[in-house]
Amino acid sequence: MSNSQIPTDKVDAYLGTRYDVMVDDHTIHLTIGEPSVDMAEYFQRQGVASAALITAFNPFGAVQADDANAAANQKLEQAVREDGLKFLPASGSGEGWPAEPGFWVLGIELDRARSLGKAFSQDAIVWMDLEAIPRLILLR
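Below the sequence we write its predicted structure tokens.
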């Protein structure tokens, strides 16, 4: 992470963020670096080997107006739909930062997840494979 253009304090904030995925009638909480038995079981039930949490809110961590964020997230949702991928509502929230809605995109390849995050000017995405350990993937 040391080669990133993202300030260290911002990376630390992303690492300390709680990521929530809305699954059926409950929420699965994800913490970077901590295995998620619940998500591993969900992957198995869904027959997927990966997922990514991607948002279009607040490009590069700069607060935007609610309508701009909503419009950007709608475009992200359309891009995910065009890829034919299943997704769930998700969000990330940290200390002093409001929850940012996004999508937990099931079965997405890491390269495509990075591409979408970059297309929507995000600093990072959260990635998970079959190990079911959420990882912060920096994009710049």
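DSSP finds four helices and seven strands in the chain.
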